[in-house]
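Worked example 2:
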Amino acid sequence: MPLEFITTRELVDKAGAVKGMVKLMKLVEEPDALVEYVCPMCGFSEKKKVAWAEPFVTGTGANKKFCVQCGKCGFQMKFLKLKKEAAKGKKGK
């Protein structure tokens, strides 16, 4: 089972405190990604399959963005690929 994409991230709430996390795994031969998350706003946790298409995934290559919506409060958890996120952090310093 070759992986197309995998990541584990900590998520921050609106105040900037780390209160949530997201795990994302996409296999090459599967059309959907497996997502497990804990919402940083309400603490709701869920495992679900999400179609590997917009609005979940936008952009291409290093510019991919991912958007997971909480099933309870509707909070949008958005994050970039690590390569792009690291480059963005270097520019800010």
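The two ends are 39 Å apart (CA to CA). Helices lie at 82-92.
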